[in-house]
Amino acid sequence: MFLGVFAALAGAAWMLDRALPPPMARFENLAREVTARDGRTLSVLPAAGGIWRLRTRPEDVPPPLLALLIAAEDGRFHSHPGVDPLALARAATQWIRAGRVVSGGSTLSMQAARLLEPRPRNLRSKLIEIARALQLEWRYGKRGVLEIWLTLAPQGGNLEGLRAGSLAWFGRAPAALDAAESALLVALARRPEALRPDRHPEAARRARDAVLLARAPEVASSAEIALAGAVPAERHPLPRLAPHLARQLREGPSTLDLDLQRGVEGIAGEALQRLPDRVSLAIMVSDLSSRETRALVGGDWMNPSRAGALDLSRAVRSPGSALKPLIYALAFEAGTVTPDTVLDDLPRRFGDYAPENFDRAFQGRLRIADALRQSLNQPAVALLDQLGPLRLASAMKAAGVLPRLPPGAEPSLPLALGGVGVTLREMVGLYAVLGDGGRAAGAGQTVVEARAAALASAILVQPFPGGGPAGIAWKTGTSWGGRDAWALGMDRRHVVGVWVGRPDGTPMPGATGARLALPLLAQVFERLPPAPRAPAPQRALALAAATPMTDALRLVFPPPHAVLPEAGRVVLRAAGGRRPFTFLVDGAPLTTDPARREAAWIPPGPGFYRITVLDAEGAAAGTALRVR
């Protein structure tokens, strides 16, 4: 009979639990939190109503804090089912004797119920709290009850939860708190407005010391309490690093390094103070191998005059000369030049196009490597003329860079000098390709041969003009009219990009990448952990030149399933494999120099064609091509 009654009661309790579940809306209405790659809080956006409420698990706080909490609020927490009959009896006796409430007899479970569903303090509310406390323990156990309390406990003002309290009052996560700091948070939860340390410091100090000494003397000695010192005089702002990225992610983990992000934001903040009005900047740091973003500054956050709400790392701008390293790498891959090839930097026209150097002077005869280091315009355009602008555009797409051209325009020679729209994020990805053996992100598609990428990167290893870390390959870029100032660089672990400009795209007279962006690039590399030292430029070039071509044979132009406008001469190009090469169109060989990696072909008319290349070992690569 006893078992039957017990079963009936249990069944009735189960039905009530299902019919009247605990109200968890406040517990689930949390601030949006973005964390760094190590789990530390990177940025927080408040919950609805402007409440800073962060989920706090028992394992997020130090054991002494839990000991203080249980000793101060519910000494028999681990031995009762959610309600402590002894505490309730004591509270009732005190109420009868004093004629008023002396102590509420509430357990942590009852407090959790009240935090979930605040009610007027009366007998009816107390009875509901008792029922809900039993329900919470039944549903979630001791750990769940603690998580509810730790997440919802008021900490003064619009702060709720001990993680929010710890970050606001001490500027760090609760796991790093000492006993005195933990005691202040426990005391605050009792009377959050009367004990706010920024408004009532003496009351807060006394309440903290009382929790330490009277409630849990085993946690801290009298000597330690005497050394506890003053309480915080003001609130710390809650973390708001990487605001542009945090707004995009909204919540969850990121790949950012918190300490590096803080350092890069400091560099950006100091630079913005020196920049003219309406000029902003963007900085990005990526891991060279994984391509994960380690730091990102998208602009001057919340500064309307600098369009701070916009993420300028996504703004489409002209790269100036920053695309030149890819052109040189493609030329090395094609075998048309080497770093030691001597050429003439002299006035020359390419049809109606006559490029000039930045200083409007020409250098005469010089090596290809020196032409890239000096960022000369005419040699870069001449190389692109040999390669074909479509080849550069195809390589950019393979590297994750979308070449944005005017409507209806086809890639042309001005691409060499920045006649295309790109973003900082894309340019960082492009330089990662050059620094990582020509490999694109994701599936690892080869954009350019590893040896060719290494040659171009080695040329760019040079000292910073104003001093800075050694072993960095870097390149600057300046768009027409000084609208965009760029600096991009890489070592063996990271790739960094810096852009400086006006968000509205108006000119900055006299601005250059070397003057505005390059010093910031050097400062960011100073913040990065040291990478394995790169060899000196000449030794790096020798090592890269001595590396044999071991890539698999492939067609680099045309790209797979390309559609070309009806035109005259098309240059087919191969990479990898072993020479000599044979190029075929629909099975018919073209007349060409077998030692070269390219062949000229004039389509007889619109239609579909099959392009194939064979190497000395019989390997084949091909693709379908359509001519409109």
TrEMBL record:
SUPFAM superfamilies membership: beta-lactamase/transpeptidase-like (SSF56601), Lysozyme-like (SSF53955)
Domain Penicillin-binding protein transpeptidase residues, every copy: 283-401
First and last residue of the signal peptide: none
Keyword Glycoprotein: no
Documented EC number(s): 2.4.99.28
Record InterPro entries: Beta-lactam/transpept-like (IPR012338), Glyco_trans_51 (IPR001264), Glycosyltr_51/Transpeptidase (IPR050396), Lysozyme-like_dom_sf (IPR023346), PBP_1c (IPR011815), PBP_C (IPR009647), PBP_transglycosylase (IPR036950), PCN-bd_Tpept (IPR001460)
Highest taxon in the source lineage: Bacteria
Gene3D superfamilies named among the record's database cross-references: Biosynthetic peptidoglycan transglycosylase-like, DD-peptidase/beta-lactamase superfamily
Enzymatic reactions: [GlcNAc-(1->4)-Mur2Ac(oyl-L-Ala-gamma-D-Glu-L-Lys-D-Ala-D-Ala)](n)-di-trans,octa-cis-undecaprenyl diphosphate + beta-D-GlcNAc-(1->4)-Mur2Ac(oyl-L-Ala-gamma-D-Glu-L-Lys-D-Ala-D-Ala)-di-trans,octa-cis-undecaprenyl diphosphate = [GlcNAc-(1->4)-Mur2Ac(oyl-L-Ala-gamma-D-Glu-L-Lys-D-Ala-D-Ala)](n+1)-di-trans,octa-cis-undecaprenyl diphosphate + di-trans,octa-cis-undecaprenyl diphosphate + H(+)
Domain Penicillin-binding C-terminal: 545-621
Glycosyl transferase family domain segment(s): 53-212
UniProt keyword annotation of Ribosomal protein present: no
Pathway the protein acts in: Cell wall biogenesis; peptidoglycan biosynthesis
Name this polypeptide is given: peptidoglycan glycosyltransferase
Species, as recorded: Roseococcus pinisoli
